[in-house]
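Progress against Task 2.4 (sequence-to-structure conversion) is shown through the following example record, which the project officer requested during the mid-term review.
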Amino acid sequence: MHLEIHTPELEQRMRRQIQSGHFHDVDELLTKALDALDEKSPVASPEQRGHSDPQAQSHIDWMACELIEAIPGKVSGRPIVRGTRILPDAIVNSYDAGDTLDFIHENYPGLTVVQIRRLIEFAHAQREQPAL
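Structure tokens generated for the chain above:
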């Protein structure tokens, strides 16, 4: 896995902590890196996040979906698919960008096709768009 951080001081700090053995597992490392990026980075524009469609920016209340949880300290407390570190927006954005359910499932083998379909249907219903 290659992690590229475009903030030199943050990259140096993360490298020092990795080399010193500060992190006990990959989840801890990724959580700290995401938290540090959230603190240091300005909010990205929709285009920088890969969302140029204004409808894709509609607010989705992920916590109303039975498949979602948010745990403080895990992926910065963002909504994630229960029992994983997968952001539901990543699934929906892949589908909206034209990826098939099978392709998404290949890239997220920890999720079933039924879960993937439910996330897409939930998001589209929240946005009042046609679902599958």
